[in-house]
Amino acid sequence: MAHLEKAQTLKIQEEEKNEQCFLKGEKDQDLGVYCDILSAKSKIEGQDGGVVTSLLLKGFNERLFDAAVVVRQMEGYSAKAVIARNKEDILAARGTIYLKVNVTQKLKELINQGKKRIAIVCTPCEASAVRKIQHTIGNDYEITVIGLFCFRAFNPKRLKEKVKQHLNIDLDKTTKTQVYKGKFTAIFNCREFSCKVKDLDSASEVFCAFCDDFVSRLADVSVGSVGSRENYSTVIVRSPIGGRLLKNHEFTVGRIDTKEIIRLAQFKREHSKKNVSELKKR
Which DSSP state fits 99? Predict the structure, then answer.
């Protein structure tokens, strides 16, 4: 128990250190440090308005980074981290797949290749790992972290089993999946199938039960569908690097509901506390 409490204290201290080193703005208990928040849609066709794809393309066009680490869906319902070096690589990685993917290995690969300006798209847990790497490599490198809202990541095998059970479809043969307003939706044979996300809870990765970060608090820019209407994304700008990436961007701006974001952020934090408390008892 003492080890667990020490780990929690160190985690809080580390997050505060990262906020001071990399972020700039007002700190909100639920949303984290931020200087701007908006609901946006790009001209690019993609998941939730194609905002992440649009930001990456802008970064390449303006030479803000030399390469990017993105997650690309592979054959069946699987994914892996890949290095994007041009527009075609970025467009090939469009869409969202709700699986845990290690992106830091590709980041290290680029660093070893001598790349100095790198963008990386990742979930909250991976964003924390990226910041640790930044402390190690020093100020000669500029890493742009585009963090995704994340309530949970799924284990591929268990998710396929649960989807088969609840929707009677083969997840490997779906063309798109989406989590929006508590509903998991899959497109299979040009038809839409959906169930409640909570029906898939048992397919979540175990470690997700202890994560308390819903909005990628350590990213330069956080992006997610919660708080925005369908086909729009909520965008939270957290640093000067993030602000530069958003500057003069031609987004269609929509209405944002911060209450819904805060509600889910609080729910995930309380869920994490409860699970940690139960772990202490055991």
Answer: B
Q: Are 38 and 70 in contact (CB under 8 A)?
A: no
Full DSSP string of 142-174: EEEEEEEP-S--B-HHHHHHHHHHHH-S-GGG-
64 φ/ψ angles, rounded to the nearest 5 degrees: -80, -25
157-206 pLDDT per residue, tens: 999 999 999 999 999 999 999 898 889 999 999 999 999 999 999 999 99
Written as one letter, the residue type at 193 is: F
Backbone angles phi, psi at 113, to 5 degrees: -80, -5
Question: Residue 139: what residue type?
Answer: N
- Cβ(215)–Cβ(221) below 8 Å: no
The answer to whether 258 and 38 have CB atoms below 8 angstroms apart is: no
DSSP run (H or E) holding 122: strand 117-122
Q: How many CB atoms lie within 10 A of CB 16?
A: 12
Three-state DSSP state, 4: helix
For the record, the structure tokens of 41 come out as 């849609």
CA–CA dist 164, 166 (Å, integer):
6
CA atoms within 13 A on the CB side of 221: 28
Can you give the pTM of this predicted structure? 0.93
- Provide CB contacts within 8 A for 19, sequence distance 6+: 27, 32, 33, 217, 218
Q: Which residues contact 218 (CB under 8 A, 6 or more apart)?
A: 15, 18, 19, 22, 23, 32, 124, 127, 128, 130, 131, 145, 147
- Convert the pLDDT of each residue in 98-119 to its tens digit: 998 999 999 999 999 999 999 9
Q: Closest Cα to residue 238, out of 14, 37, 3?
A: 37
- Tokens of residue 91, six digits: 């467009």
The rounded distance, in Å, linking the Cα atoms of 272 and 90 is: 34
